[in-house]
Design goal:
The chain has 188 residues and is an all-beta fold. The protein has three domains: 61 residues, SH3 type barrels, CATH 2.30.30.30; 61 residues, OB fold (Dihydrolipoamide Acetyltransferase, E2P), CATH 2.40.50; 58 residues, Nucleic acid-binding proteins (OB fold (Dihydrolipoamide Acetyltransferase, E2P)). 0% of the residues lie in helices and 54% in strands. The chain is flat. The mean pLDDT is 86.
Length: 188
């Protein structure tokens, strides 16, 4: 059991028959009242982010997690198939559990968080940024570099994001996987 004072970003714990990961937290001390901690936590089974407050004496059942490297192989129905890089075992994970799965490309390496007790997958962590090719967008116009106007673009892997007007089909761009936002154009 972990005390509420041990809380930190990335801590995994069991709460209300579900497993959560701490996304953010804030210690709050009101004038006369007792101190409490406001926690933003993400369900590792549904992907929903909720906020909850814990009083200073709360105990959390900490879950031990392991990070292992896997390679994304292919999509099969509503599952994505990953291969363990050390044992070559394959693992099937539902797409609804994975944030931004459309930013994955076949053959790419990812880290999977596994519950250490029973080796069940909890979540997948993509790289902070990925480089993808634009497969469709409206053509850019010469001189459209001065404004902050964005247009929709479809990337390799199927993701759709908004990019500046000067981006064309075939350009490679760097994308932030957390915010799904354009960072910069990559020179080939």
């Amino acid at each position: 059991m972990a005390n509420i004072s041990d809380i930190r970003n990335g801590l995994c714990f069991r709460y209300n028959h579900d497993i959560y990961s701490v996304v953010g937290f804030q210690h709050v001390k009101m004038g006369r009242g007792a101190a409490f901690v406001r926690v933003k936590m993400k369900s590792l089974t549904t992907g929903k982010v909720i906020e909850n407050s814990f009083n200073g004496s709360a105990k959390l059942e900490e879950i031990r997690v392991e990070r292992r490297n896997f390679q994304y192989l292919y999509e099969e129905g509503e599952n994505l198939v990953f291969m363990n890089n050390e044992t070559y075992e394959q693992m099937y994970i539902r797409t609804e559990v994975i944030d931004n799965f459309d930013l994955l490309e076949e053959g790419e390496s990812v880290e999977i968080l596994l519950n250490a007790q029973d080796d069940t997958p909890l979540t997948i962590e993509l790289a902070k940024t990925v480089i993808r090719e634009v497969v469709y967008t409206e053509p850019g116009l010469k001189g459209d570099t001065a404004t902050n106007t964005l247009k929709p673009a479809k990337l390799s892997g199927g993701a759709e994001i908004r990019v500046p007007l000067f981006i064309n089909i075939g350009d490679k761009i760097k994308v932030d996987t957390e915010t799904r936002s354009y960072i910069e154009r990559v020179k080939s």
